[in-house]
Amino acid sequence: MLFPVLSMGILSSGTTEKNIRSILRSGSSLALKVDTTNLINHVEVDSFKLDIIPPSFGIQFYKDGIIFLSMTKYEEKMSASHISFGAAEAYYASIKDSVLGRHTIFSPFSSFSYPCEAMTFSHDFNTVYFTRLSKKDAKEKIYMAKSTPNSKNLSGWVTQASPLEFCSDNSSYTHPALSADEKMMVFASDKAGSVGGMDLFFSKRVDDKWSAPSNLGKLINTTGNEFFPFLDSENNLYFSSDGLPGFGGYDIFTCKFNGETWEKPENLTSYINSDNDDVAFTINKMDEMTAFFTRKQKSGKGEMQLFKVKLKEDTGYHNLMTLSYIFNGKPAVKSSLTASTKSEVKPVMAEPIKTKPGVEVIKKEDVKSHGTIDTLKKLPEKKTITRPEPGVYTTDNKTVTVKTVTPAAVEQKNVVIYRIQLLVSTSQKNNKVVIINGKSYKLYEYFYLGAARYTIGEFSTLKAAVELQRTCRESGYPQSFVIVFVNNTRSLDPKLFK
């Protein structure tokens, strides 16, 4: 069996669900820290029409849609004599509000029938790490596959013959989660050193080799099972556990990454978790405004229901916040587990004019207010001039009076620019222009946590930027959103989005 049975009703140390609810209501040190009110105000959770079939427990984001397992007899045109037959296969589809868009097969010339929530992709979507059973010991192992075109130029997935190097023993290794800079991977395993059934471990990639796994420790791992890890673009960790205090068998938790390590797990509250098993939480890394998770019934046949999580569109936070920010707050400045990265915006606008007390910038149209044209022509050609001492001056048979002026520091005004973010990549792009709806736009680039973010447009008002955002979403960029820069640095000031 690929995954543990998701039906444990008793939590670690003999703590029952009833006791947990009592503890949470009492406000003790185990009380939830994620703000339920904040979630209700800014996050929507709705069921999504898609059947989850074994061996999957969920879905995974891929490009501008999702991948999921489905039976071929439902997705392809087959003859009547074969209507009762079909096999599980991975499919890709765009997502609409609560249903799927057009379906296409994920790997046209090589079957890919592995659990979709147990996959993680590189930033360019050309590499996938996934879980499958090893032929050697019939245990779950993590493999890597590359997207490769065949003779007909169809792109499919070619898998390496052997699993990743740290999967060398007879233990299970499953559900890899890749960091944004692709230099760290978190996964679940029952290998030696586990404190429970399945623990979370991480490995670092150095010179294209994955290091020996390290246990995430007893702050996160319990005597129960920790499963379904996911890393967002800030390296915040999401996972399911049946050993931490919660509302059901498996609850979804998050651990903020503080730049050095992961902090204490926080339950995502009863707004997301239930008295059933809530698993396979994953966020769209392209904009982090949408997520999915699965709820498995502990009774009956164990039916599974997919849920969609998204930021509410009727709040000012829609263009400002991300789900990562809502769940974990402001990201850490730097990471010791990953390569150091730039967080400042590349200059894309002219630097504002800097002035000093007592020095005034003279514009051509303001010449008459400072003296005669002949007098100013004799001054050195500089962008700034110093006002003469007060007094009476004669030049070209004309008398000019300079009055006393008290010098004052000239305040530098903030330059506010709105843009539309389209793409995220950990490598720089050579193409600096994108065509949307027949019009060319210059791509502006800034770096954040190892990823190059690409934006278009340059507006002084939010309204104008929203118009371009609407055009982008209607022209093949459904996840585009408005961001704002103040003096070339991205800002999250809510006042700028009102």
Question: In words, what does this structure look like?
Answer:
With 498 residues, the protein is mostly beta strands. It has 3 domains: 12-328, 6 Propeller (Neuraminidase), CATH 2.120.10; 359-402, no CATH class; 416-497, Sporulation related repeat (Alpha-Beta Plaits, 2-Layer Sandwich), CATH 3.30.70. It has helices at residues 17-26, 36-42, 72-75, 323-328, 373-377, 462-473, and strands spanning 43-48, 60-62, 65-71, 88-95, 100-105, 119-121, 127-133, 140-149, 155-159, 173-178, 184-189, 199-206, 209-210, 214-215, 226-231, 237-241, 251-255, 266-267, 277-283, 290-296, 304-311, 359-361, 384-386, 391-395, 398-402, 416-425, 433-436, 439-442, 444-448, 451-459, 481-486, 489-491. The strands form 9 sheets. Strands 10, 11, 12, 13 and 14 form a 5-stranded antiparallel beta sheet that branches. It is globular, with a radius of gyration of 29 Å. It starts with 16 loop residues before the first helix and ends in a 7-residue tail after the last strand. Mean pLDDT is 75; it is low at 5-32, 77-85 and 338-385.
